[in-house]
Amino acid sequence: MENQVLKKLTGITMSAARAHSLDTKSSSQMPQPQATNSPPLQLYSLDSGEPRGALAADPPLEPTDAFLAELQRDSDALEKATPQEILKWAVDRFAPHFTMATAFGPEGMTIIHMLAEIAPETPIFNLETGYQFAETLELRETVKKRYGIEVQYKYPKTTVQEYEAANGGPVYKTDPNRCCFDRKLSVLHEAAKGWHAWASAIRRDQSPDRAKAPIVGWDRKFQLVKISPLANWTKKEVWSLITSENIPYNPLHDQGFPSVGCQPCTRAVLAGEDERAGRWSGFQKTECGLHSS
Ligand code: SF4
């Protein structure tokens, strides 16, 4: 139904599974980015002093030198392992203190599909900023139906209406770093408390920032173990599995949105653009800060 509505809006019919092999797309029928001024971006950080992530777990897990060395050895040993083997290792090693955050991207859906077979009881959550696309929210329902996995929403302290009223309008228009901090990062810090480890859906070939991601490492920002089972996979491998296993995916990928975030900060990419060029278009911002240290 939604596919039909979106098709009507854009007139685009190519499936994402086919389109993944095309690095560029015609943009003539796609929504164009709004011209924006580029106000200086500020950085925001938590300074509450409270224990974060695994340090707040029961029992707490601390990044001692010995533990970090152990993680390095584990990461090296898993370098040639399949994503499924890495996930199995993560579950065996860290469950029930193992979790996953997802924005329902193609990589996240791939991991959810694998976890459904390996450990469907793994808690998974999504940061519901209040600005996500309807298609993204619908995908949560599809995951529930297909896998019986109920992805938990984690909400900011305020609704969109309250937030915008308190700030004289949408903050994403003037200071997306602050908006991401208030509606994603601070929520994620809270959600990460009490876990020893989480799965990340990043691939090394996605950006220079992600190129050095270990398979297993200590997430210094959130203070817990970060496991990236798809670090060595390519976009093509992800989409091959989605196609062969009929894994559900966000229909927006069929309409020129290779990377989907919040609706106001995501546009379709133009011919020749990087796959994340449609995020925070008009700002010197490429990451919400979740995966940068
Ligand atoms: S992606 Fe945009 S709307 Fe979403 S939290 Fe960040 S700035 Fe706000």
TrEMBL record:
It is an enzyme of class 1 (oxidoreductase). Residues 24-40 have a biased composition (Polar residues). It comes from the Bacteria. It catalyses: [thioredoxin]-disulfide + sulfite + AMP + 2 H(+) = adenosine 5'-phosphosulfate + [thioredoxin]-dithiol. GO terms for molecular function: 4 iron, 4 sulfur cluster binding; adenylyl-sulfate reductase (thioredoxin) activity; metal ion binding; phosphoadenylyl-sulfate reductase (thioredoxin) activity. It holds the Pfam family PAPS_reduct. Residues 17-61 are annotated as: Disordered. Binds 1 [4Fe-4S] cluster per subunit. [4Fe-4S] cluster binds at residues 179-180, 262, 265. Its main location: cytoplasm. It is found in: Cytoplasm. Its cofactor is [4Fe-4S] cluster. Keywords: Cytoplasm, Iron, Iron-sulfur, Metal-binding, Oxidoreductase. GO terms for cellular component: cytoplasm. Residues 99-268 form the Phosphoadenosine phosphosulphate reductase domain. Its EC number is 1.8.4.10. The active site is at residue 288. InterPro entries: PAPS/APS_Rdtase, PAPS_reduct_dom, Rossmann-like_a/b/a_fold. Pathway: Sulfur metabolism; hydrogen sulfide biosynthesis; sulfite from sulfate. Catalyzes the formation of sulfite from adenosine 5'-phosphosulfate (APS) using thioredoxin as an electron donor. Belongs to the PAPS reductase family. CysH subfamily. PANTHER family: 5'-ADENYLYLSULFATE REDUCTASE 1, CHLOROPLASTIC, 5'-ADENYLYLSULFATE REDUCTASE 3, CHLOROPLASTIC. This is Adenosine 5'-phosphosulfate reductase. The lineage of its organism: Bacteria, Pseudomonadati, Planctomycetota, Planctomycetia, Pirellulales. The gene is cysH.
